[in-house]
Design brief:
- This protein is mostly helical.
- Among the domains are: 60 residues; 54 residues; 96 residues, no CATH class.
Length: 355
Amino acid sequence: MSEPTQPDADAPAPEPIAPTPGPSSPPPASDAPITAREAATLISGQPDQASADKADAASRKESRGETEAQEPPEESLKPPRSWSKQEKEAFAALPREHQEVFLARERAREADLQLGFRQAAEQRKAAEALAQQAEQAQAQARAAYERSLPQEVLLLEAKYREEFGTPTEAEIAEWESTDPTRWIRWNGAFQRVTRARWELQQQQSQQAQQQYQQQQQFMQNAEAWKAEETQKFLEKAPEWKDPATYGSKVADMMEYLQEIGFEREFLERAANEFLPIQIHDHRFQLLAWKGRQYDKAKEAAKTPHRAPVPPVQRPGVAPARGEANEARFKDLNRQLDRSGNARDAARLIAAMNGR
C-alpha cells in the first residue's frame, strides 16, 4: 500500500463546497413515533394541508379583527312557563344539550296533548249531534203517537168488545178458574185498553194546561198593550185626564158609537175580550170619516173669516146674515173646545156646510 501523499504547502487551500439546495431540513430527531402522513410530509417537503387550512383561517380572522373570544355567546334556552320555580332553576343548571333534549320532549308532549284535545272535542261534537238526532227522532215519534192515540184507544176498545163483550166480574172469575187461556187473553187486552185510556187522559190534561198558560200569557200581553194605548190616547187628548169628567166622556162616546151602528154588547165584549175590528167594517169607516171632518172643522174655525162689512142700517133692523153666521160659528167652536163632544163637532160641521 502506498503512503498518502502530503499536500503541498505552497498550494492554495481549496474553497469550501456550498451545500446543494434541497428540501427543508427535518426537525430535530425525537424519540416519539410519527404517523404515516407526517412521514410523507417530511419526505415530500410539503406542509400538512389541514394545518395549512387552520393557519389560513386564523390569518383571515386576524386580518378582519375577529377572534373566537369576540363571537356572541349563544342565547340561553328558556324552560316552559308552566314549570315551577324549582324546575326552572334545575333546568338552568343543566348543560345545553340536555336542555335541548328536555325542550324537544316537552314540545312533543304538548303536541300530543293538543291533538288529544282536538280529537276529544270532535268526538264530543259528534256525540252531541247523535244525541240531538236521537232526541229529535224520539220527539217526532212521540208526537206521531200522541196524534194517533185517540184512534188507538178507539181501536183497542173495539177489539176488546168484539172478543170479550162486556164481561161481569163473575164471568171473569169463571174464566180464571175454568179457562185460564181466555182469562190471560182478557187480562192482556184489558191492561192495554186501560193503559191507552190513561195516556189519553194525561195528554188531554197536558194540552189543557198548555192552552191555559197560553191564554194567560195572551191576557198579560193584551193588558200591557191596553195600558200603552191608553197612555198614547191621553197624550193626544189631555182633556180626558180629568177624573171628574172621565165617566161622562166614556158614556157619551158609548152613545155615539151606538148611533154609528155598534151594538152595546159588542162594545162591552171588545173592551174586555179585545175583539178585532176590521178596517172594512162600515162603522170603522164612519168613525174615520167623521174624525176627519172634525179635524177640518177645528182647523177652519181657527182661520179668521172676513165677512163683507154690511151697510149702515137704521136702528131696529136685523144684522146681516154673514155676521149672524160668524157669531154662530164662534159660539159653536167655543162650545166644542170646552166639551170636546162629538155632537158639538157635528153641529159645527153642519153649520159650516150650510154657510
